[in-house]
Structure formats: structure tokens, C-alpha cells
Amino acid sequence: MTNTVSGAASPITAATTAATASSAPAASNSQLDKDTFLKLLVAQMRYQDPSKPADTSQFLSQTAQFTEVERMEQLVKQQGELLAAQLQLSASNLVGKTISYTGPDGTDAVGVVTSASFGSAPTLKVGNTDVPLSSVKEVTSAASTGTEPTEGN
């Protein structure tokens, strides 16, 4: 039994190749983006066999999948923004607190946080040292300058 390939397969293959080539950065991450999905969907519609049109339910299913992927991308972006805000809040709450951390040379150190900065990742300032928030091991209240309360008074 032999299988023949119709002439319509060639344009679809060309469209698929073009869509994949135009999204090379996304493909390098082994992921297809929404633009590639749309290009493939349009190519499928454009080169379909007129005697056998695409199934409407299949088209609606693909459209629903596209919408779902788009919403998931939005959700991932919002979660990333929320995480960044939480890390910034955590770092700013450490100002004035005593922390123990792993220093840049790999040794453990202790100091009072004097400021927090928010570049690509939250960073705390302890003396003259920039400490990434991820290096913090322990947080305690800053040492008080007054007398400590005693029991029995």
C-alpha cells in the first residue's frame, strides 16, 4: 500500500517552516509562542482542502486553546510581578534588623541592615557590604541601646 502526498501539504509545510524560523528565539527555549500558534492556524485555514473543510469544532477547540495559553501567559507575568513585590517588601522590612548572612567570600557574618535596594533582585546594605536577600540566614531585632528589662521589677 502506498501513500501519496497532496499538493496542499507543501504550502502547509512551508508555512510551518516559516513560522518556526520566525520564532527562533522562542524555539531555542523549546517553546512555541502565541504568534507561531496563530501562524500555524492561519496556514491551516488558508491551505485546507475546499472539498473537505476544517471541522468547526476543531477550529473552536484550537481557538479556545489559544485563548487559554494567552491567559496562562498573563497569569505567569502577574505572578512574577507579585513575587517581585513580595521580595521588595520583605527586604524593606529588614531595615534596622540584625541579620546573619553568608558573605561574598563564603563566610558567615552578622550585621544591621541599613538600607535595601531593588535592582534585578533585592539587595540589603550591611555596613559597606551588599547582601543579596537570598543570602540571609537569620533575622533578629536590632540590639537595643537602652537597658534590657529584667524579671521581677
From TrEMBL:
One of its GO terms (biological process) is bacterial-type flagellum organization. Keywords: Bacterial flagellum biogenesis, Cell projection, Cilium, Flagellum. Residues 1-30 are annotated as: Disordered. Residues 8-28 have a biased composition (Low complexity). Transmembrane segments: none annotated. It comes from the Bacteria. InterPro entries: FlgD (IPR005648). Belongs to the FlgD family. This is Flagellar basal-body rod modification protein FlgD. It comes from Planomonospora venezuelensis. The lineage of its organism: Bacteria, Bacillati, Actinomycetota, Actinomycetes, Streptosporangiales.
